[in-house]
Specification:
- With 180 residues, the chain is mainly alpha-helical.
- It has eleven helices and no strands.
């Protein structure tokens, strides 16, 4: 349709502009209904040619792979992303949750605990807390559930409540849990 020709025209405006090429991929993924796989592959290829060292490329490639139905390639691409990129972590974790791989989830989220630790997005803290709980890592689960609650993520309450019922929260964590 018309949006396809407009998207191609946008991409053709400046083929050497990496930012513009990545933008066309995002528009195709986020604004189009069922964009053709061939178009997505063409657009991501142009983005990679225009700026092969862009930090966004592994995340965008993964999104294209997901849109074309290749979850394995998406995970491989996400493994090449900056390990501290929350967008890439969210996408990788979503795929790992579908595969029920809690240990891989914890490994993927570990780099986000850099300094300052408060930079970890709250929603990912909840995912980490659930994976840690599933693996019997109560201290880690409690730490991340409480931190997620402190950041305003109500979904973390479920994990914290489970740990509180088991008596697995420290006295300080219990006070935080009771106060939130």
């Amino acid at each position: 349709g018309r949006w396809l020709s407009e998207l191609r025209r946008l991409s053709d405006l400046s083929p050497e502009d990496g930012w513009l090429q990545r933008l066309t991929v995002i528009i195709a993924l986020d604004c189009a209904t069922n964009p053709p796989s061939e178009l997505l592959v063409q657009l991501i290829s142009r983005a990679a040619q225009a700026q092969p060292d862009s930090a966004d490329l592994p995340w965008l490639r993964a999104r294209v792979y997901l849109a074309t139905g290749d979850q394995d390639a998406a995970l491989q691409s996400l493994n090449q992303a900056d390990p501290t990129d929350p967008r890439a972590a969210r996408l990788a974790v979503a795929l790992l949750e579908k595969r029920a791989e809690p240990a891989a989830i914890l490994d993927r989220l570990e780099p986000l605990h850099g300094e300052p630790d408060r930079a970890m997005p709250a929603d990912l803290r909840c995912v980490e807390a659930k994976a840690a709980l599933e693996l019997g890592q109560g201290a880690r689960a409690a730490r991340e559930a409480i931190r997620g609650m402190l950041q305003g993520q109500e979904a973390c309450r479920e994990v914290a409540a489970s740990l509180a019922a088991q008596g697995a929260l420290s006295a300080e964590q219990q006070r935080w849990f009771d106060g939130l």
